[in-house]
Amino acid sequence: MKKIQQLCFVSGVALATLATASAAQAALVVVPPYLAPGAQYRLVFVTDGTRDATSFDINDYNTFVTTQARGGTPAIDTALDLALNAAGFNPNTITWKAIASTQTGGSSTGVDARDNTGTNPSSTGVSIYLIDGTPVANNNTDLWDGSILRPINVTQSGATTPTAVVWTGSNASGMVALRYSLC
């Protein structure tokens, strides 16, 4: 049976792991104030931009969210960059990953969002926060149990998108949803 290729647009959701630093806070709260120095955590945002969902290669989506986080190519100082710098982080060393799942196709093997982001519930993980400091999930299991603490609705520029609908190609457990997968 031939599958009909769907063309859609993806507004990415990005995730990165950080450790707290003891520096001043910027407009975006990239270091939640109630964490102990040295505590590890993750930041998440929904992208301002969109892209098509026609690639089977998860790296295309990872590149998209990284480009969004860094302000394009070449990178420009974004509100997120400035906040990360003010908190003692080098934005160029942070790895952003798309919370996205792809199916197998072409020369690419399918990838589940929870594996792409290193948030598989088989490992405990760390707390996840919006880039405004709002808690989203206590750990990996909490992220993928079908009920997060807050919606992922803050963009890399700090804007809130109350009705953000993001096509991730994933089901609630972070695995590829074949009918809705990216590709």
TrEMBL record:
Keywords linked to the UniProt accession: Signal
UniProt name for this protein: Similarity
Signal peptide span: 1-26
Domain of life: Bacteria
InterPro entries hit by this protein: C-type_lectin-like/link_sf
